[in-house]
């Protein structure tokens, strides 16, 4: 989206009275004010700012390690950096540079081949189906691998999750092959509902876990790696080598603590309401929801129109009627078939099925 369109969307969505997907855009002033107000209850604001990862950053690391039931956690400025560190750690332990992952996994689609260019590791795909690989697919993988990376949920397949039994069996198969297991849990926080198990039990399946501070939690930025003490010690070494040991990171760390306090307990409610929203959207003429019902509070909506037409109609609906529905439209498949990712958060909880139907009718009328 170009700068002019971004500014138009920012202005339109800020003024809307109702928002279905995601959160309302805020200004820098509003973001700073809300952080100052909300952080008061999650950390001692009279404490000195962190220096190279101590103070509030260490407090965040301890909190996340406890939530995941792991010995230690290490904060990183980005998930891309964090996962490279985790995967190279296990490559060195197994002696194999091969990482089994899905072709739709984040390192394959969104990191400019950093895993290979910077870390010297290589991906092998046990399956191209939009799901977790099966034990049989791992056992018959065309190349031997030392690490299995599992993205929970698999975002670019539609935020899909396996059943708990499938996940357990797949992890067990990887271990039978002598591989280590790493969870890409950027959105692990909201996966407990579908999997039917708490965070510590999910994290216990893997040797290491990555979680995001801003996806779902609403933090400014950042990520954490969680695992054993030895894993965390070496992760800090590579964090420094990759340039991730920043002088001060207190705004991002505070915002993550706020997210853990405020958003984490709300996620099961968002997931439940996402099913209501998805069912209502599925009634729209020509609409397709994937998956239906959603596995988390995020899912994909497809409509048989161009992305440009839907983008313009979405912006006009926000500008003229004060209703903000979706943020971005794209055409990742066939031309004329557009897709948007829907995120059901706090703003969407007030929407009924009837509300969704009426708003979509208004949107389609503008096409």
From TrEMBL:
<dbReference type="GO" id="GO:0016829">
    <property type="term" value="F:lyase activity"/>
</dbReference>
<keyword id="KW-0456">Lyase</keyword>
<dbReference type="InterPro" id="IPR015424">
    <property type="entry name" value="PyrdxlP-dep_Trfase"/>
</dbReference>
<feature type="domain" description="Aromatic amino acid beta-eliminating lyase/threonine aldolase">
    <location>
        <begin position="51"/>
        <end position="291"/>
    </location>
</feature>
<dbReference type="InterPro" id="IPR015422">
    <property type="entry name" value="PyrdxlP-dep_Trfase_small"/>
</dbReference>
<dbReference type="InterPro" id="IPR001597">
    <property type="entry name" value="ArAA_b-elim_lyase/Thr_aldolase"/>
</dbReference>
<dbReference type="InterPro" id="IPR015421">
    <property type="entry name" value="PyrdxlP-dep_Trfase_major"/>
</dbReference>
<comment type="similarity">
    <text>Belongs to the threonine aldolase family.</text>
</comment>
<keyword id="KW-0663">Pyridoxal phosphate</keyword>
<dbReference type="Pfam" id="PF01212">
    <property type="entry name" value="Beta_elim_lyase"/>
</dbReference>
<protein>
    <submittedName>
        <fullName>Beta-eliminating lyase-related protein</fullName>
    </submittedName>
</protein>
């Amino acid at each position: 989206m170009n700068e002019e369109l971004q500014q138009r969307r920012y202005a339109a969505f800020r003024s809307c009275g109702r928002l279905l997907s995601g959160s309302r855009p805020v200004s820098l002033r509003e973001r700073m004010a809300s952080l100052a107000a909300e952080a008061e209850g999650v950390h001692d604001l009279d404490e000195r700012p962190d220096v190279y990862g101590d103070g509030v950053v260490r407090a965040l690391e301890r909190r996340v390690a406890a939530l995941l039931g792991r010995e230690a956690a290490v904060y990183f400025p980005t998930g891309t950096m964090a996962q490279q560190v985790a995967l190279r750690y296990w490559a060195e332990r197994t002696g194999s540079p091969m990482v089994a992952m899905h072709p739709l996994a984040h390192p394959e689609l969104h990191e400019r081949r950093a895993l290979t260019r910077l870390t010297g590791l290589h991906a092998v795909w046990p399956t191209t189906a939009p799901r977790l690989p099966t034990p049989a697919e791992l056992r018959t993988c065309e190349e031997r691998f030392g690490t299995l990376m599992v993205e929970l949920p698999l975002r670019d397949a539609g935020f899909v999750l396996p059943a708990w039994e499938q996940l357990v069996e797949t992890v067990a198969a990887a271990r039978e092959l002598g591989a280590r297991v790493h969870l890409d849990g950027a959105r692990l926080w909201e996966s407990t509902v579908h999997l039917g198990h708490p965070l510590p039990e999910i994290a216990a399946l893997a040797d290491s876990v990555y979680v995001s501070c801003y996806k779902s939690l609403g933090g400014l930025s950042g990520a954490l790696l969680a695992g054993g003490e030895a894993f965390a010690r070496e992760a800090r070494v590579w964090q420094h080598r990759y340039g991730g040991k920043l002088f001060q990171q207190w705004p991002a760390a505070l915002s993550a603590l706020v997210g853990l306090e405020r958003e984490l307990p709300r996620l099961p409610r968002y997931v439940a309401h996402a099913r209501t929203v998805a069912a209502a959207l599925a009634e729209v003429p020509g609409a397709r929801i994937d998956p239906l019902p959603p596995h988390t509070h995020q899912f994909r909506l497809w409509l048989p129109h161009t992305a440009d037409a839907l983008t313009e109609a979405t912006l006009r609906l926000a500008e003229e009627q004060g209703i903000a529905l979706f943020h971005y439209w794209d055409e990742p498949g066939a031309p004329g078939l557009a897709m948007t990712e829907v995120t059901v958060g706090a703003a969407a909880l007030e929407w009924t099925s009837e509300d969704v139907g009426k708003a979509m009718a208004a949107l389609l009328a503008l096409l």
